[in-house]
């Protein structure tokens, strides 16, 4: 795994909109995001949409959310809302609730507010149907979380490579095998030194 | 034998406290809590007090055995009989 080469955050995430006016009003006027950059191009887009405006919104820390509007491409009434979503970070519960209030003041429905494992989030849809999540951390992620995540990906790859049709159950059973190795590989620490326990539970 | 592995972090640790089995053995090491028993291990959500997102992810650490039940209220892992 390469370690020397790194990226640093999101420069921009770009999506296509067929509802540019509503999109501008949502991000600029409802959310109050600034517009650091707009690009226009004539004849450079793929057919059938050679002419476009590419506009950006500042989502903080130098990261940007961008949209392409292609002139002459109508909205597809059959289009399903996107399955993907974008989550924007805030630091505190107060900020999260302030965003909830901001959406509601502008008549934007907050679909849900959910406490996850390590984050709490609110969700709304932008004019393109894309879910915008705003989320705050409940705790810092640690090396323990990172190691567990590595084992989960390893378990998933193993499950996908297996002859048996992968299911969440095959994944979980493989994950157990990998975690068992972690326990077996760690030298049992001195019980009195760091609280290692091996005991009958209540 | 049955086993449930729980990442030893604040949101998942209540799972270990709520697990019930005859002769349940708890090992806390390497960032995980391992719960093992010869027979079934049962966890009732009412005893674990977990929000949806954590409860439905409760087996992310993995299990050994056969998952007989995992619904909104209860998790039960049985020996696989092999």
Automatic annotation (TrEMBL), chain A:
Q: Where is the composition biased (Basic and acidic residues)?
A: 193-202
Q: Which Gene3D superfamilies match?
A: 2,3-Dihydroxybiphenyl 1,2-Dioxygenase, domain 1 (3.10.180.10)
Q: Show the SUPFAM superfamilies listed in the entry.
A: Glyoxalase/Bleomycin resistance protein/Dihydroxybiphenyl dioxygenase (SSF54593)
One Pfam short name:
Glyoxalase
List the InterPro entries hit by this protein, alphabetically: Glyas_Bleomycin-R_OHBP_Dase, Glyas_Fos-R_dOase_dom, VOC_core
Q: Which intervals of the chain are annotated as region Disordered?
A: 183-202
CDD domains (alphabetical): VOC
Which residues, if any, are the signal sequence? none
Its protein name is VOC domain-containing protein
UniProtKB/TrEMBL annotation, chain B:
| Protein name (database record) | Uncharacterized protein
Species the sequence originates in: Streptosporangium carneum
């Amino acid at each position: 795994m390469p370690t020397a080469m790194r990226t640093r955050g999101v420069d921009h995430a770009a999506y296509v909109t067929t509802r540019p006016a509503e999109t501008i009003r949502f991000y600029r006027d409802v959310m109050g995001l600034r517009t650091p950059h707009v690009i226009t191009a004539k004849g450079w887009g793929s057919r059938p949409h050679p002419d476009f405006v590419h506009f950006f919104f500042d989502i903080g820390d130098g990261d940007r959310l961008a949209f392409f509007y292609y002139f002459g491409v109508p909205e597809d009434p059959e289009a399903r809302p996107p399955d993907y979503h974008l989550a924007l970070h805030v630091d505190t519960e107060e900020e999260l609730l302030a965003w909830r209030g901001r959406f509601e003041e502008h008549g934007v429905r907050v679909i849900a507010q959910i406490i996850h494992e390590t984050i709490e989030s609110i969700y709304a849809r932008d004019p393109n149907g894309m879910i915008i999540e705003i989320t705050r951390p409940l705790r810092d992620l640690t090396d323990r979380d990172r190691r567990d995540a590595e084992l989960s990906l390893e378990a998933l790859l193993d499950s996908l490579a297996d002859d048996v049709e992968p299911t969440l159950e095959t994944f979980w059973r493989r994950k157990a095998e990998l975690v068992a190795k972690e326990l077996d590989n760690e030298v049992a620490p001195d019980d009195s030194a760091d609280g290692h326990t091996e005991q009958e539970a209540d | 034998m049955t086993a449930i592995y729980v990442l030893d972090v604040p949101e998942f640790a209540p799972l270990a406290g709520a697990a019930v089995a005859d002769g349940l053995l708890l090992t806390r090491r390497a960032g995980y809590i391992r719960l093992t028993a010869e027979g079934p291990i049962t966890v009732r959500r009412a005893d674990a007090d977990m929000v949806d997102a954590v409860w439905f992810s409760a087996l992310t650490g993995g299990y050994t055995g056969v998952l007989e039940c995992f619904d909104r209220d209860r998790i039960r892992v049985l020996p696989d009989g092999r």
